[in-house]
Every structure is written in structure tokens, then in C-alpha cells.
Amino acid sequence: MTRYFYLYIHFMKLQWKRYIQYREDAVIGIIGYSVNTVISIYVLKVFLDNLTNFPGWSTNELVLLFGFVTMARAGWNLIFINTLFIGDYVREGTFDVLLLRPVNTLLLIIFSKIDFESIGEFCIGLIIFWLALLTEFETLSAWFILKIILLLIGSILCYAAIHLFVNSLTFFIKDVYSINFIVWRLDETTRYPNSIYPGWLSKLLWFIPYAFIGYFPLMSITKSLPLLADLGTISAGYIIFLLVYKIVWKFSISRYHSYRQ
To answer: Which ranges of the sequence are coiled-coil (predicted)?
Structure first.
């Protein structure tokens, strides 16, 4: 595990050097992502301004949810964005090369692209979340901060599991672009409570399972849950990712045959 961590740091340094070769493009990219997040904040403001009563949710809790999910999605973009392009590796035949290398195949795919443009989005989400957190609580203990960090990592892994599941289908149907697009748009729904959506969509978001990205983590942060419920919420993202990796991903690559054959 330590070896993979140092490998990731090494690849990140290489990716950063390549990224800043074109400084103007890098700055524009980061600004572009940040502007998109600011627009989303404005949409949230309009939503809150027109909100007269939202059972079970205070205005500050909605802001906390928005900030938390923004950080989680930006974290997924930063680290796992290249899993969206697994199909390209398969169609181009370069997946064969990855299988021959003495490093975990999925890690090689993850290492190959790091989306530094998401840093601005993450920072904006962090500021929003932190300010709302200080409004919600008078004091913040070290354990509470650690719990939030673990919940955030779990949410990032839950995003990663959902997209890894979808892109593992490329070993069977070759092109998952349309499914990727639908799931990518559904990601946006996690920034708001499920109850604002139509019944069928709300049930779908519980099933996928988007609820473990924003809803349950926020309940763990803002409510006094039993210890078992707290531990279950913290570990959910890790377990979901592990299950998708061990069952879906491993099975999918075991059925792989070269696209060029």
C-alpha cells in the first residue's frame, strides 16, 4: 500500500509538470471549473431564496450538503477522472499493454490522468462547507474533524465506485458513453436533498446509491446518531468501492479480450 502511495505521488508530480507547461491553459481550466461552481452556488442561492419550508432541513444544513458534495465530486474528478475513459483503452488496444505491466491495472489507469482543474472547485466547496460548519457548531473537536475527513473520503470512493461500475460495462458492450453521460448528470443531484425530486427519481438515487455521498454523511455530521450508525455511514463508501472493485471490476477484466482481435 505504501508503495502505491509513493507511486501516486511520483505520478502526480509528473502530471503537474506536464500540466503547467501550458500555464495559460492551466489557469483558464482552473478558472473555468471555479466559475462553474460559482454558478452552482448562485443556483443554490435562488433555490434557498424561494424556499419557504423544507421539512427536516435547515438552510444551513442545505449549504453544508452543497459544500460537502462539491468537495467530494471535485475530489473524485481530481483522482478518478480517468476511469471515464476505460473504454478508450479497450477500443484502442492499449489495455493489453496495461495488463502486462507489474502494477495494478486500475491504478495505472488512475495514475495516467490527474485533473488539477478540480482544485479550484474543491477549494470553493471547502470554504462554503467550513463557513456553514462554523455557523452550525460552536466548537469542533479533533475527532469530529477526523470523522468529516473519513466521511469525505468515503463519499469520493462512492462516486468512484458508481463510475467504475458503469465503465466496467465497456468490457461487454464496448461503448458506454451514453450511460456515462446520464450518470454524470445524475451526479449533480447529490448536491440537493433527494426529497425535492420526483418520486421515481428519488428512489433511483437511493438505489444507485447516491444517498451515501451526501445525505447519510450529512446526517452523521449534523445529527447525534448511534455509534453503529455512525460507523456504518463512515465505512459505507469504502465497502461499496471494495465490492465494485473485487466483484465487478475483477470479473470484467477476466472476461476481457483484445478489441483488435
So the answer is: none
In a domain, 220, yes or no: yes
d(C-alpha 215, C-alpha 28), whole Å: 33
Cβ-contact 222, 140 below 8 angstroms: no
Q: Considering the domain boundaries, does residue 260 fall inside one?
A: no
The per-residue DSSP string of 98-148 comes to HHHSSS-HHHHHHHT---TTHHHHHHHHHHHHHHHHHHH-S---HHHHHHH
How many Å apart are CA 47 and CA 87, to the nearest integer?
Answer: 37
Domain that holds residue 44: 2-254
The pair phi, psi for residue 137, each rounded to 5°, is -125, 140
Amino acid letter for position 88? D
Q: Cα dihedral sign for 254, 255, 259, 261?
A: positive
Lowest-confidence pick of 114-128, 144-158, 193-207: 193-207
Q: List pLDDT tens digits, range 180-226.
A: 888 888 888 887 777 777 777 777 777 778 889 988 999 899 888 88
Distance CA(217)–CA(230), nearest Å, equals: 9
**pLDDT at residue number 67:** 92
Tell me if 261 is assigned to some domain: no
Phi/psi at 3 (5° precision): -60, -45
Question: What is the total count of domains within the chain?
Answer: 1
- Round to whole Å and give the CA distance between 241 and 79: 14
Domain-embedded: residue 109 = yes
Q: Exposed, middle or buried, 58 (CB in 10 Å: 0-12/13-18/19+)?
A: exposed
Predicted model pTM: 0.86
